[in-house]
Aminotransferase class V-fold PLP-dependent enzyme
Amino acid sequence: MRNRRKPPCSAEASQEPRTISQSLPSPFDPKWNDWPIADVAIREALLHAYEDGSWGRYHGPNVARLEAVLAEVHGVKHALVCSSGTIAVQIALRSLNAREGSEVILAAYDFPGNFRAIQDAGLFPVLVDIDPETWCLDANSLSAAISEKAVAVIVSHLHGGLAAMQAIEQVAAKHGIAVIEDACQATGAKIGGRVAGTLGEVGILSFGGSKLITAGRGGAILTDRDDLLQRAKIYCERGNNAYPLSELQAAVVLPQLEQLEMRNQLRCKHLQRLRKRLEALAHRLRPVAWCSDQPSFYKHAWLCDTAQRAHNLTQMAESQGIPLGKGFRGFFKRPESQARKVGTLPHSREAAERTILLHHPILLQDEYAIDWLADWLRQQVGEE
């Protein structure tokens, strides 16, 4: 690792106004954005798949092994891999065998693919607000959204926040609707001692190119219910599996599962350092709530005090290659013909306008990278 001069901490810095050269002695290192990272175990898995010929098979050992390992790691009966996390949501919805036009509840601020998956399954979205502390569906809004047509709720863990799954499960069980738990952004997180993706009827994972575990593309559903697994398989069957994960993709996911907990711990450690260094800016950059459970950080969210600040920060970051981006656009502008809205959805609107997101690769770098980012944010936000 190269020797780098660390930027001065605020306690050590001169009382004179800092210049860019004083506070940021070197430019942002593009290598801090590298993902996926070089990994000998992945290289060996690729070579083994080549040598045993499994890379080119419809049916080989890697997919079967991955499904068994995913089920074991998550403590569920069944795991079914597929071509993407978005497709996994659609497969999960189809496994419910719901009548066309039935309603599915989701947060008005969520991943766009979840809204589209509901529509593609012939179902109708119902929008509720988010908890402003976690960016996840507000459990207190769920009861008011449930009608006689409701069959399910999609609950996403977003931006380092974890949804209140126990409360959501209780409401869903009371009204007899299914919970689809989208853990695509929370790989390896734990809620009440259970791994994210195992607290609903169906859990969703993603192995997309930017995710904490990546195969370039890919996803999986998790469930304890035999009937849901059977319907999921029937939906995927088109003479052959229409939404497969390849043997080669399965091969590279397996070694990453072994390293996930260690890497999640390092990401959490570095985020704690970053958040500590930014505490003085909390009135302008409010971080996602760090709950007592064990989060994982594919993204880390801050809510800016103004939409203009969020715009300025993301524009400046993009120009310098810094991994800060905008949040989702949300669904609150969708017409009534496309979704039923419960309330005015104020927190979802704020999140869409004022969220900035830190992408995870920098969190596996050294402390210098974390401190550089903290100083950059302090310079952009704190000196006004």
About this structure: Confidence is low (pLDDT under 50) at residues 1-22. Residues 40-255 form a domain with the Aspartate Aminotransferase; domain 2 fold (CATH 3.40.640.10). Residues 86 and 113 are 6 Å apart (CA to CA). The first strand starts at residue 78 and ends at 82.
